[in-house]
Every structure is written in structure tokens, then in C-alpha cells.
């Protein structure tokens, strides 16, 4: 068991070293591959932060431009995902500040302003996706919208992106204890709201 | 049921999902869950919540990946071209500095000769000599500053045009 774990850790280290080397060289093939690899997860995370499909897609592009420009700063001891998501997060925060500097909180709480943000809904998806998503997904999206942004963010990173607590702390630039308390509170609120919705 | 035991069980149920629990805690929790239906329903509610969270999908514009890849390749090309230009600039600076140092005694004599033959005060031809040294460096500094400003503007252009 330990050998398997060791092998897994080693292969991850080899991969991050290769990524770091490729980023230093600004290798376009490597970037193409990484863009493809994160084409669903990164926009989903950005959408969680901004609540806007258009902003999520713009920020997705912008994040990869930043990865190209700042690639030499990537430390292979970090997991690439955590570094990538922290770049995306900084850009999202910059965007939110630029858009409504007087009310960042309001933008971070899309549920407070009906219609201000275009959270994915059944109309905006393709017919196939709408059918596949179903009633439950709509409820879940509605519930997620009602969570405070910091709780929504850590829940997504922990349970959708499967990041560990240390990685989440790196991404959100918060102490581990803060991440834990946000997760506990977020999970509790999400569970209670979901139960209410389902009842 | 003991409220303290229930409270401990609830804490462990959440911790199990959020950060994991030890084997002994898991053993205790399993034993408790076997006889406590309210805690068992909390486990089920947590599982339903997490399962629901994982079902959320975000459909991506199919052109997004290819657009991003093209944009990144273009920017990589620009950065590479810029790097080549900067390298050429630094090489010419270094070459100019070496030649300047090597030719300094000759240039000094030339300025001195002109100063004496034109009957100029020594301050004038010495200032001329200093300028001979400073002007190229000044020109290069201006060029580098201009280039850096241009690069910074290009970076700003890539940030979310609205």
C-alpha cells in the first residue's frame, strides 16, 4: 500500500516538474493540453465565483494568458491545480472590483440581485443538457446561489474539485482553520437549505 | 439518547466529510449510528447534499477551448518576439560598452587634440568627451523604458476588454 502511495506521489512530482519546465519554456503544446484538461473545471469554478457565464469564459481565457506570462513563477512543489485556481481567483476578484467597486459584496452575492447575474439555467443550456440536468440540478443551483460566496467557493473546491484542505487554503489565501470553519458552516447551511427545498 | 453523545456524533459526521476522522472515531461513530436513527438521517442528509453538489454541471461554450488556445499561442509568439528583441538590445549594449571602454583613451586624445587646435576651454572638450559617453547610454535607457511601457500596455490590452 505504501509503495503504491509512494509511486503515486512520485508520478505527481514528475508531472508537476514537467509542467514547471514546460511553463518556463512557454511550451504551447503543453498549454494546449492543460487548457483542454481544465476546460470544464476551471470555468465551473469561475462561474461559482462570479455568477456569470460570460465573465467565467472571459476569465478562463485571461487565466491562461496569465499562466503563460507568469509560468516561470510556478513552483513544482505545489500542485498545479492549486496554483491555477489561485490565479483564476485573483483575476475574478479584480474583475468584480472593477465592475462594481462600490459594492463588491453585492456582486459576490448574486442571489441578492435578481437577474443581475446569469447563473446557468435551463434556458441557457443546450436541450440535451437541460434534460440531463433535470429538476434536481435546478434546485441545487438555486440553493448554492443562496450561500455566502466564501462558503460556496470552499464547498466547490472541496467537493467538486476534490482539493484537500491545505490546497484550498492556498487557493483562497486563508488560514486552514478559516477554511475548515467555512466548510463546516457552508455544508450545514447547504444541507439545511437543500432539505428545505426538497421537502 | 444522550444529547452529548449525539452532539459528538454530529460533529464527527461533518468532520468525516470535511476533513476525515481517525479509525477509532469511525468505529465509535459506526457503533453509534447503528442505534441512533436521527444521527443516521444526518449522515444521509449529508450524503444527499454532497451528491447534489457533485451533480451541478456547467456547460462550456464549445469554441472556448480553441479560442483560448489560439489566444495563448498568439501571446506566446508576441512574448517570444519581444524576448528576441530584448536580447538583441542587450547584446548591442554590451558590445557598445566594450568598444567604448577600449576606445576611451583614443577618444580622449581626439577630444584633447580638437580642444587644443580649436583653442577651446578644457571644460568644453571634457564635457564633449563626457557626452560622447553618456548620450548612447541615455538613448538606450530611453529605448528600454519605451519598450517596457509598450509591453505593459500590451499586457493591459489582454485583460478583459469591456
Features:
heterodimer; A: 199 residues; 0% strand; globular; B: mainly alpha
Describe the structure concisely.
Chain A has ten helices and no strands. With 199 residues, chain A is mainly α. Chain B is mainly α and 162 residues long.
Explain the overall architecture:
The complex is a heterodimer of chains A (199) and B (162). Chain A is mainly alpha-helical and 199 residues long. Chain A has helices spanning 2-25, 28-37, 41-50, 53-70, 80-99, 104-108, 127-145, 149-160, 165-172, 176-198. The termini of chain A are far apart. The relative contact order of chain B is 0.05. By secondary structure, chain B is mainly alpha-helical. Chain B starts with a helix and ends in a 5-residue tail after the last helix. Chain B is built from five helices and no strands. The A-B interface holds A 26, 28, 31-32, 35-36, 39-40, 43-44, 47, 56-62, 64-65, 68-69, 95, 120, 124-126, 129, 132-133, 136-137, 139-141, 143-144, 155-156, 158-160, 165, 180, 183-184, 187-188, 190-191, 194-195, 198 and B 14, 17-19, 45-46, 48-50, 52-61, 64-65, 67-69, 71-73, 75-76, 79-80, 155, 158-160.
SS strand fraction of chain A: under 5%
- Helical fraction of chain B equals over 70%
Number of helices of chain A: 10
Mean pLDDT of chain B, to the nearest integer, reads: 86
In helices, the fraction of residues of chain A equals over 70%
- What is the approximate shape of chain B? elongated
SSE diagram, text form:
The complex is a heterodimer of chains A (199) and B (162).
Chain A (H helix, E strand, L loop, with lengths): L1 H24 L2 H10 L3 H10 L2 H18 L9 H20 L4 H5 L18 H19 L3 H12 L4 H8 L3 H23 L1
Helix pairs in contact in A: 3-4, 3-5, 3-8, 4-5, 5-9, 7-10, 8-10, 9-10
Chain B lengths: L2 H16 L4 H13 L1 H19 L7 H55 L4 H36 L5
